[in-house]
């Protein structure tokens, strides 16, 4: 019975992704974003529960990737499609660019699939990552509708600039599959020694969120990449 608990949590992650897709195409991006946050928590929990219960199965590994492909692969691509569509409404793009450009968002979906496929066969990624993890990329993208819904810094105009969206799409499509060593938030112990970079990251992330609300998410993702570049050998 206990061996199925992590898989059940993974299925809840998948359900959140499916519900998020429904709300995205209902133009309710904020609701979708909250569902993705829940999916990310569940994605973290299934692995943690599997380690605590000392249960592992190949089907669990494959199920996790399939769920992630929906919640952190298709969902961010669909969000980008909607953001592109909104950005083009007031930027004077002519046909056929105006009708085709939103589909550029699905580059995120394609490169997320490549990222997840590589992760499953890459033995280097047991305690750290090579390339930006799909949940991190997705958290960045779903932060945009949350920022726009609570925009006290005037960032909506920036987010809905089509050139900004093109840049984010191309940059993170690359970062998903780049040979870039990144630390994982996996604690073997909670001692300071050996976990310095993780504690620094978490501390700064909390400070940023308290000060900037949802606008802290893009800064936190950038910080994650920067700290990894400073100390890429962390395990």
Automatic annotation (TrEMBL):
Membrane-spanning residues: 7-25, 31-53, 65-85, 97-117, 129-148, 163-187, 199-227
Cell compartment(s), UniProt: Membrane
UniProt family annotation: Belongs to the CDP-alcohol phosphatidyltransferase class-I family.
Name of this protein: CDP-alcohol phosphatidyltransferase family protein
PANTHER family: CDP-DIACYLGLYCEROL--GLYCEROL-3-PHOSPHATE 3-PHOSPHATIDYLTRANSFERASE-RELATED, CDP-DIACYLGLYCEROL--SERINE O-PHOSPHATIDYLTRANSFERASE
UniProt keyword terms in alphabetical order: Lipid biosynthesis, Lipid metabolism, Membrane, Phospholipid biosynthesis, Phospholipid metabolism, Transferase, Transmembrane, Transmembrane helix
Pfam families recorded: CDP-OH_P_transf
Topology class, membrane: Multi-pass membrane protein
InterPro entries reported in the protein's UniProt record: CDP-alcohol_PTase-I, CDP-OH_P_trans, CDP-OH_PTrfase_TM_dom, CDP_ALCOHOL_P_TRANSF_CS
């Amino acid at each position: 019975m206990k061996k199925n608990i992590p898989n059940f949590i993974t299925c809840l992650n998948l359900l959140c992704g499916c519900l998020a897709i429904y709300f995205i195409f209902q133009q309710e991006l904020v609701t979708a974003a909250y569902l993705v946050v829940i999916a990310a928590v569940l994605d973290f929990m299934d692995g943690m529960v599997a380690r605590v219960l000392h249960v592992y199965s190949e089907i669990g590994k494959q199920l996790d990737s399939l769920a992630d492909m929906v919640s952190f692969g298709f969902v961010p691509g669909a969000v980008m499609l909607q953001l592109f569509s909104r950005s083009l409404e007031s930027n004077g793009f002519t046909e056929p660019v105006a009708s085709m450009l939103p589909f550029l968002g699905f580059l995120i979906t394609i490169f997320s699939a490549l990222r997840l496929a590589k992760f499953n066969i890459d033995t280097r990624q047991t305690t750290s990552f090579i390339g930006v993890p799909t949940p991190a990329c997705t958290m960045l993208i779903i932060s945009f509708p949350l920022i726009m819904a609570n925009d006290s810094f005037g960032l909506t105009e920036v987010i809905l600039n089509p050139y900004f969206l093109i840049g984010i799409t191309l940059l993170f499509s690359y970062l998903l599959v780049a040979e870039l060593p990144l630390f994982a938030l996996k604690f073997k112990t909670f001692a300071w020694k050996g976990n310095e970079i993780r504690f620094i990251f978490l501390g700064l992330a909390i400070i940023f969120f308290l000060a900037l609300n949802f606008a802290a998410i893009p800064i936190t993702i950038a910080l994650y990449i920067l700290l990894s570049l400073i100390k890429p050998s962390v395990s």
